[in-house]
């Protein structure tokens, strides 16, 4: 059975036909909803996936257009399906891992399943004689519009601790929101850059757009602190103006409150008002 799947995936998703991306996650995380939202632009009614669904997708991002074969695979969470799922991920260029943020009790299960599948994928690639090159893992913290959603910071902390050796980024998304405000354009914009980075001969650190989510910094860097500072400098160059950033802060409208936002607000206040303003 597995050998048949292996031959089929190699036949239908050859490397010269563009990127192949697998969409994975536990049930009810909206994998199929995402696939058809990206391919049709509409939220469609779906049923639990048995096997897989595949679509050729073109996604508009803030800075580019990303085209790929999207493969929504069912069965995540079932131990007997893992080896079959690993055949799909072995031929893929990236993994999109969906999380149901409105179900906090299953977050540990989702993380464990992601770890197992990623490890099996790396092992399969090694068995096939492929170099152990990193592949992007885009984690979508879906259903962030629900009142009981797990915070993106908590998801980032857990995934960054457990999967620190991978090029990984966590984005907050909602598949039922209008596409422009769903978080998906920024998420797939990062994935586009990440795919270009890992397939180039001299990949550099993969940056993410400001406020988009929480990054697990590239482990290939020899100095994570210098890399982080470099990332912040790059983000500040493309971010909103100091006055706009300060207005977002006063109106509680910052996309996220991470280390970058914390340090930048302190810097903006210092340069605009001086030390006395911070004291008051």
Would you write up a description of this structure?
This is Arf family protein. GTP binds at residues 25-32, 75, 142-145. It comes from Volvariella volvacea. GO terms for molecular function: GTP binding; GTPase activity; metal ion binding. Mg(2+) binds at residues 32, 49. The protein has 280 residues and is an alpha/beta fold. It has a single domain, classed as 3-Layer(aba) Sandwich (Rossmann fold). 44% of the residues lie in helices and 17% in strands. The chain is built from 10 helices and 7 strands. It has helices at 2-12, 31-40, 82-90, 107-127, 152-162, 184-199, 224-238, 242-250, 259-273, 275-279, and strands at 19-25, 52-60, 65-73, 94-100, 137-142, 168-172, 213-216. A 7-stranded mixed beta sheet has the order 2-3-1-4-5-6-7, with helices on both faces. Helix 1 (2-12) packs parallel to helix 3 (82-90). The longest helix has 21 residues, at 107-127. The radius of gyration is 19 Å and the shape is globular. Residues 1-9, 201-205 and 210-226 have low confidence and may be disordered.
């Amino acid at each position: 059975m597995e050998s048949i799947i292996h031959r089929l995936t190699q036949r239908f998703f050859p490397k010269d036909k563009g990127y192949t991306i697998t969409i994975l996650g536990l049930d009810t995380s909206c994998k199929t909803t995402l696939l058809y939202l990206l391919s049709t632009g509409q939220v469609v009614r779906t049923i639990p996936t048995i096997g897989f669904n595949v679509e050729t997708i073109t996604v508009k991002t803030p800075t580019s257009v990303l085209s790929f074969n999207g493969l929504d695979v069912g069965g995540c969470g079932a131990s007997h399906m893992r080896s079959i799922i690993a055949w799909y991920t072995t031929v893929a260029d990236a993994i999109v891992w969906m999380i149901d943020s409105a179900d906090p009790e299953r977050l540990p299960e989702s993380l464990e399943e992601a770890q197992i599948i990623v490890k099996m994928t790396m092992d399969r690639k090694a068995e096939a004689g492929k170099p152990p090159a990193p592949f992007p893992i885009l984690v979508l913290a879906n259903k962030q519009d629900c009142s009981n959603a797990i915070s993106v910071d908590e998801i980032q902390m857990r995934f960054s601790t457990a999967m620190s050796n991978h090029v990984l980024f966590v984005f907050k998304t909602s598949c039922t929101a209008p596409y422009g405000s769903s978080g998906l354009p920024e998420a797939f914009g990062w994935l586009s850059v990440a795919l270009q980075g890992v397939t180039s001969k001299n990949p550099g650190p993969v940056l993410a757009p400001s406020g988009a989510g929480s990054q697990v910094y590239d482990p290939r860097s020899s100095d994570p602190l210098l890399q982080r500072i470099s990332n912040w400098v790059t983000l500040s160059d493309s971010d909103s103006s100091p006055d706009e950033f300060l207005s977002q802060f006063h109106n509680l409208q910052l996309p996220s409150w991470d280390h970058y936002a914390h340090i930048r607000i302190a810097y903006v206040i210092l340069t605009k008002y001086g030390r006395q303003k911070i004291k008051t």
